[in-house]
Amino acid sequence: AVAAVHAAAAVHAASAPVAHATPAAPTAPAAHQAPGGREHQRGGGRDFRGRRDGRGRFDQQGESEFVEKIIAVNRVSKTVKGGRHFGFSVLVCVGDQKGRVGIALGKAKAVPDAVRKGLEKAKKGLITVPMYKGTIPHPYLGKFGASSVMLRPAAPGTGVIAGGAVRAIFEALGVKDILSKRIGSNNPVNVAKATLDALKRLRGVAGVAKARGLTPAQVIYG
């Protein structure tokens, strides 16, 4: 009987740890927390990269003194023996909103590369436009190809009365009030170049006074 009691106690003692080890309560939370932690880390990495990219783009725009605008994007294709080759031409304008502006046409196999090339060319070809109280000093008719653009000064509060390529150029230039009218072809490249032709030929009071050998007051008041 004593041997049977000892044997039963030994069996109970041996089975007691097994009974406590069989529940997977300690391991289940660890396994649950591990994927959760990795998932949280992955999500945090995505968020950080997104914020970093956003901050990078914002800082780049903040440091740049130019306003960059895309006027038109045109896809072109070339048929060859093996199929078709596609490319893009992008018309862009760049300005500092203080009287300087430039336009250019960038060409590449991808739109981002075409935009980058166009912006680089536009920044190299900036022109300075005389401005007077947020508008242009006098009317002018610019021409390029089959397109013509009429520009006229406007009173304060009029706003930019223009559309398409003409409006994008004026916004980059910094003009606040102006009247414009497109005549002839509506090709955005021709219209943009006609607008730039008119802006190149504008003359301010200082330039006219210097050419005539007068003072700015004499030019204005006679």
Tell me what you see in this structure.
The chain is built from 7 helices and 8 strands, in the order H-H-E-E-E-H-E-E-E-E-H-E-H-H-H. The radius of gyration is 35 Å and the shape is elongated. The strands form 2 sheets. A 4-stranded antiparallel sheet has the order 1-2-3-4. The protein has 222 residues and is of the alpha+beta class. It starts with a helix and ends with a helix. It has helices at residues 2-21, 27-63, 111-124, 165-173, 188-200, 205-212, 216-221, and strands at 67-80, 83-95, 100-108, 127-128, 140-144, 147-153, 160-161, 178-184.
Structural class: alpha+beta
Element-level helix/strand string: HHEEEHEEEEHEHHH
What is the count of DSSP helices, taking H or I runs of 4+ residues?
7
Helix amount, in percent? 40-55%
Q: What is the global morphology?
A: elongated
Radius of gyration equals 35 Å
Strand order of the largest sheet: 1-2-3-4
What is the number of strand segments?
8
Task: Give the arrangement of secondary structure elements.
Layout: H1 2-21, H2 27-63, E1 67-80, E2 83-95, E3 100-108, H3 111-124, E4 127-128, E5 140-144, E6 147-153, E7 160-161, H4 165-173, E8 178-184, H5 188-200, H6 205-212, H7 216-221
Key traits:
single chain, 222 residues, four-stranded antiparallel sheet, four-stranded mixed sheet, 27% strand
